[in-house]
Amino acid sequence: MRRAEIERETKETYVKIALNLDGEGSFLGDFPIPYYKHLISTLCFYAGWDVEINAKGDIEVDPHHLIEDTGITLGKAFNSAILKSSFLRFSNKVIPMDEALVMVVVDISGRPYLEIKDDKEILKGRLIKEFLRGFVNNSQMTLHIWILSGENLHHVEEAIFKALGLALGEASKEVSNLKSTKGKIW
Q1: Is the CATH number 3.30.230.40 carried by domain 3-171?
Q2: Distance between CA 108 and CA 82 in Å, rounded?
Q3: What is the pLDDT of residue 90?
Q4: Residues with Cβ < 8 Å from 184, sequence gap 6 or more?
Q5: What span, in angstroms and rounded, lies between the C-alpha atoms of 72 and 133?
Q6: What is the pLDDT of residue 180?
């Protein structure tokens, strides 16, 4: 089974995540920031992952620490679980949500890189970037996000998490042979 359990504790946060890549898309647990709980559970639902999370932190100071550390912990769990198999590796998805249209492209490559094309600067200063950066760097994947249109911030961010979930669900599917001209990724 492609599962992992990762725990991260700092002076500012505590995050424990149990991840099953071959799940049903269920999200259990406690995350004290409702909007980000919504986004993370959306990602897991569309990826088909079962995730149990226990997270707490100094959100009265700033939610930044907890959101970033959750991305880091989920990325580490994903990396640990995905290495237990060969997988499709690549995927891309274009998802609308009302006026928002977002394209996500992933390569589970062993090379972390995050590119967000946001010409209108819709995500400027948003903590979603910290979550995604932590996730990408620790999952060791390449992630490109293009915001093609959108005005409502919630619609844009939710479209990103839906597209990312669908793309990761597909890219992480088990296959008999990993596609790499090098013969391996890590």
Answers
A1: yes
A2: 9
A3: 96
A4: 178
A5: 8
A6: 77
> Helix (H, G, I), strand (E, B), or coil: what is residue 13?
strand
What are the structural domain ranges in the chain?
3-171
HEC per residue, 97-162: ECCEEEEEEEECCCCCEEEEECCCCCCCCCCHHHHHHHHHHHHCCEEEEEEEECCCHHHHHHHHHH
Over pLDDT 90: what percentage of the chain?
Answer: 91
What is the largest distance, in Å, between two alpha-carbon atoms of the chain?
A: 48
Of 169, 170, 108, 160, whose CA–CA distance to 138 is shortest? 108
pLDDT at 179: 73
**pLDDT, tens digit (0-9, with 9 covering 90-100), for 112-132:** 999 999 999 999 999 999 999
Using a cut of 0.90, tell me whether the model's pTM lies above it.
yes
SS3 1: coil
- At 150-164, the pLDDT tens digits run 999 999 999 999 999
Task: Give 49's DSSP letter.
Answer: -
Find out whether 104 and 142 touch, Cβ atoms under 8 Å: no
User: Position of tokens 């390569």?
Assistant: 107
* HSE-CB of 11 using CA atoms within 13 angstroms: 1
pLDDT for residue 181? 73
